[in-house]
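Record 1 of the preview.
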Amino acid sequence: MRTGRIERNTAETRILIEVNLDGRGNYDVSTGIGFLDHMVEQFSKHSLIDVTMKVDGDLHVDQHHTTEDSAIALGQALGEALGDKAGIGRYGQAYSPMDETLSRVALDISGRPYTVFRAGFSQEKLGEWDTELIEHWFQSVAQAAGITLHIELLYGTNNHHICESIYKGFARAMRQAVELDGRKGGAIPSTKGQLGG
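->
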C-alpha cells in the first residue's frame, strides 16, 4: 500500500499525519477547529484516502498556525505516499454541486506547485474557523505535495455549501489523480521520465 507518515513538531504546533492512498476513506481527525475537522473528513471520505490527523496547536494565539501547519504536513504525507508517482493518473478534475452551489476543481500532480483560488466568502467565520484561512489551507497542501491546483466557485451563496463543495471537489479530483492506471505499466506519467522541475 502507498502510505505516508509525517510528524511535525514546532514551538507552535505538534502534528501527526498518516495517509493511505489505497484506503477506503476512513478518517480520524482532531485539529481543535471543528469546521476544519469536518472538511478534512469530507476530503478523506470522498477521495477514499485514509487520513489520520492529530494536531495540538497554539489556538490561544489564533488559528493560522494550526491551519497552515496541518495542511503542510498533509501535503508532505501525500507526497511521501506518492513516491516517484509511477503509474498514477496524475490529472484529476471534478464539478461539485451542493444545493445552490457549484464549484470546479482541476489539478495536476506535476511536482510544480501552483494554486489558483477563485472563490470568496461573505462571512468571516464558518463555525469558529476563519474563512480567510481556507485559501491558505489549499495553497499550503498544494505547495507541500507538489500539486498544480485550480479551484473556482462557479456560483453559490451559502458559505457552508461553498466550502464543502470545494473540499469535495478537491477530494474527487485527487481520487482520480492518485489512482493507478494499469495500462501505464508503472511508468512515470511524463515524457520527461520524471515529475517536477
